[in-house]
Structures
1.
Amino acid sequence: MIPRLSRRNFGKLAAGASLATVATGYSSGTTPPQAQANAATPAATLAAQTTAREFPQGFLWGTATSSYQIEGAWNEDGKGESIWDRYAHTPGTMRNNDTGDVANDHYHRYKEDVALMKRDLGATAYRFSISWPRIFPHGTGQPNAKGLDFYSRLVDELRANGIEPFATLYHWDLPQALQDQGGWQSRDIPKAFADYAGYVAEKLSDRIHHFFTINEFRSFTEAGYRRFDIPAPGGSRTVFLAPGLRLPAAEFHQVRHHAVLAHGLAVQAMRAQGKPGIKIGPAENIETAVPLIEAPEHIKAAQTATREMNAPFLTVMLEGRYTEAYLKETGKDAPNFTDEDLKIISSPLDFVGINVYLPRFYVLASDEAPGWHEVPYAKGHAKAPISNFPIGPEALYWAPKHVQSLWGAKAIFITENGCAGEDVLAEDGKVYDTDRIMFVRAYLTQLQRATADGVPVKGYFYWSTMDNLEWTAGFGNRYGIVYVDFTTQKRTPKMSASFFREVAKRNAVA
Ligand code: FCB
């Protein structure tokens, strides 16, 4: 098992922390002032609905994808093999033996997809990832001009359609040649990653102004090199990803360290080789502790828990040190690192990107160390369809709020948020995904609350632009706001696409 920093001990509640202290402010029989105002001026209500819940001016509305999940063309134009090509071609790894060989055929259909983003989604930004083995087929050495050219054409197409490109440099498709040399276990990989990142910045930062270094440090290290348990009501779900290794603790912690070191080295290389002023940050699936009750002691507890839960990734990147609790918890298996490593890892960033799907857990304050305790999900807690992830819209308030209050971030992007659904084409050819619209509306309401509080969130990327290969779960887990028929490659915007378009147009929760 991965050493978890969570506390399942139900220690004493902090003094004064009980449900009784959660005053609503209104005793029964009293009408809240807002309701009174609405009743007094009914005509004002409609106007209030159309102007309320607005996001700050200039807020970006985008969707996200990744190379292996949509591109296909896995061995075209000189692309090298990635660990995902190898893994998906290994029998028994993927549901229904699905692979990314063709996926959404986006490599050949990118113009159609960009047109759809503009026309049907009204998007003003797009987050995609660059496939490392398209650029460096062997991971290092001679670059492949045709690979780079694909992204150059994609970026031109986006810009021509008024869509701001946001590129992720690593969304898990490591060149297989580097895996053969030890993969993320090897200390040479961070350097190879920085060389690749610097090269891409040199070639494309004239038109790409925002880069994410690595997507979800936690997911690819834990699920690829040990095991990744995601909380779910009534139990947890274990996810495995390529290259499918199960390393002993010490080696696994070293992999985590190499991932953050790669991030830091890449930031430095990109600043050295890219155009002045490019903006760089990570895209991490922050583990968010949500205060079960919004009272100061529980909020503090949630903040402390969030910092500890993210110790190996965001915390070290943003503070330049591993927390004492993390080093104590990992003990003799703690990663080997130097002071110089820590300086590199905490190279200054322009923004923090966070992927937020769920609260990692709810917390209450505790008088006992470490000052908080985990409240497990009730068995009947609401679950997202298919993935069974717990639904907790407040995570989209607290995640950015913690990032601001813990680390003083000046700019934050929500780099992923969304849910899978059992989407079907109705007889009229449409997809009525009420579940997804309900999910996104609830999460966006909380995000808007964060921006109204002054949390500097600059944009939101829905995962995903269109249904795609959901890693080992295959094509059955549909996360898109555009439905894809994988036999014909026909794209059909779902009702959630119309919802998204309305949100983007109004710059408000619709
Ligand atoms: C995230 C991944 C993304 C996609 C969504 C559903 O963890 O970054 O590629 O799989 O989950």
2.
Amino acid sequence: MEKNALNIVDERTQASYVIPIYKRTVRAMDLRQIKTGAEDFGLMTYDPAFLNTASCQSAITYIDGDKGILRYRGYPIDQLAEKCTFLEVAYLLLFGELPTESQLIDWIDNITHHTMIHETTKRFLEGFRYNAHPMGMFISTVAALSTVYPESRNVHDAEVRLHQIHRLIGKVPTIAAYTYRHSLGFPYVYPDNDLGYAENFMNMLWKMVEPKYHANPVLARALDILFILHADHEQNCSTNVMRAVGSAQADPFLCTAAAAAALSGPLHGGANEEVLRMLAEIGSKDRVPAYIANIKAGHGKLMGFGHRVYKNYDPRAKIIKWAADQVFQTTGKNPKLEIALELERIALEDDYFIKRKLYPNVDFYSGIIYQALGFKPEMFTVLFAIPRTVGWLAQWQEMLEDPEQKIARPRQIYTGHDAREFVPIEKRGV
Ligand code: CMC
């Protein structure tokens, strides 16, 4: 008898099947052989929202949600956040190993030389209204890059792919900064190749008439750490979109735009913006208990709380809390922090949240730092999309190189009508 297997008896037919267990999963296709007769299609699995389905094998990011562990390519997230720069981590995620010194120099050089966007793309941004949401502008402009680089369609050419990866990682901060400048009516600032990734982003956001922009090093480092923490998170909603759209062999600009569209939703990356709205709505610390009581009564959700995978404190939230302290020493405390801490304190002692294992997630504190850094809530999800572009691209590459992957095409359980006769319009009643 095969030990690493399931022995299944179909009560409908009394037939038995041995289904191998592969890396703690069963292959859904192995169930197809379970049939009641020759006409039967065979068993499928039903898993709306992928609660218990592995859609791929991946060597990029490891999460143990019960223990609150997050690792990129085996390295604990806290070590990477403490010791690396964002571009070093980007290299690790994409290529599997930390770069040597010369690899890092080349990598930074490649990214830095792809930060400018075509002037026509810059003008494309002019078409948006002054009050357009930055995330809408970001998604559309990333998609528009597809028209500028038609060779990017050649997704099976590794060299072409790498070129687009450089372009995307280089250009997303530029696009993000331009959406911000557009909303303020300020002239766009060209990238400055002397500056690091986060510093250059700050330069494009905030430089005015001074000849050279000098970022505050504490704030630039905090932003770089936030980028590291947001770089990848295995098969989340937007990454799943990246892989699904990529599986149809769309070019990486369009895949990234699609993934960013998923990220913009309030249950995903849009949650950081919602957290700030929630804290503003609560207004003061003494109103926290009433707010929580209202949530428990079924009126909405506590934004920045809960996670599909983490049933423990999100390890990123811990590091963000630490980074927030560093930022606040420079910028002064964000008054919303007091409300957030009180919300966390009460929620973590409350049965409703304990029973459901609801803890602060990455979005709970990130918005408070972003606000202290000078960003408006509308920009928060764009700040998430910049680093996550790296994770999306790493996952996209892995998907394209995986011989088991095909176009993503789920099955369904059809619940509609059986075949019926067409009814002419005059017989359809009034
Ligand atoms: N506040 C109050 N109750 C909650 C919350 C919350 N934030 N999150 C989940 N619950 C309750 C939910 O109502 C359900 O209760 P019951 O069993 O009585 O029906 C239970 O907890 C299980 O929740 P679920 O909705 O089945 O969990 P899920 O895995 O489908 O959803 C989630 C995960 C992140 C969408 C959800 O927790 C949520 O909506 N949180 C608020 C939005 C948020 O912070 N999103 C950011 C996620 S982290 C970063 C990212 O992915 O971008």
